[in-house]
Amino acid sequence: MKLALNEFLDEFYINVTDRQRMIEDAPPLLDVARDDAYVGAVGEHLGRRWGLRVPEWTEAPERFLREPYFDGGVELLKPYLLMESPLAFRRRMIFTELEPLRRARFPRGQLIESPYL
Questions:
Q1: Residue 117 has what pLDDT?
Q2: Which of 34, 37, 55, 104 is most buried, most CB within 10 Å of its CB?
Q3: Which H or E run includes 70?
Q4: Which has the closest alpha carbon to 30: 4, 6, 54?
Q5: Phi-psi region of 83 (alpha: psi -120 to 50; beta: other; left: phi over 0)
Q6: How far apart, in Å, are the Cα atoms of 112 and each of 8, 68, 69, 108?
Q7: Are 15 and 22 in contact (CB under 8 A)?
Q8: Domain ranges of the chain
Q9: 11-50 per-position pLDDT tens digit
Q10: What percent of the chain has pLDDT over 90?
Q11: CA geometry: angle at 69 spanning 65 and 75, to 5°?
């Protein structure tokens, strides 16, 4: 999943005019709860982060975890991850860094400021 997500993000960041279309359709479920929730968080976060309409598919129950997951697996990072995780990830009990979708092609200076990220 990681490779496909990285390729998708690179394309998303390059194609400014196609961003809404790129997140509109629901990707297939992967049958791994953590991955399905992560994909839901990605769709919601990209919508919020870049001022797009958040797709309805991101609210499907299958796109949420029942148990918390801490990215990185390091016990000492948990307080930091609890505080820094963007809303779309926290809602799904996925705790990660402030910019979990950062890539080399991540746009600079085009950020949407929002208290809901």
A1: 56
A2: 37
A3: strand 69-70
A4: 4
A5: alpha
A6: 20, 28, 27, 11
A7: yes
A8: 2-95
A9: 999 999 999 999 999 999 999 999 999 999 999 999 999 9
A10: 75
A11: 160
Residue 63 DSSP label? G
Pull the structure tokens for residue 63. 């796109």
Tokens standing for 31? 């049958």
- What single letter denotes the amino acid at residue 95? F
Residue pair 88/98 in contact by the 8 Å Cβ criterion: no
Mark 18-54 as b/e (b = at least 16 C-beta within 10 Å).
ebeeebeebeeeeeebbebbbbbbbbbbbbbbbebee
Amino acid at 35: D
State phi, psi for 26 to the nearest 5 degrees.
-70, 125
In this prediction, residues 62-89 reach a mean pLDDT of 92
Q: Judge whether 102 and 46 are in contact, CB under 8 Å.
A: no
Q: Find the radius of gyration of the CA atoms of the chain.
A: 14
Matching residue, tokens 């809303």: 87
Work out the pLDDT band at 72, boundaries 50, 70, 90: confident
Q: What is the pLDDT of residue 18?
A: 96
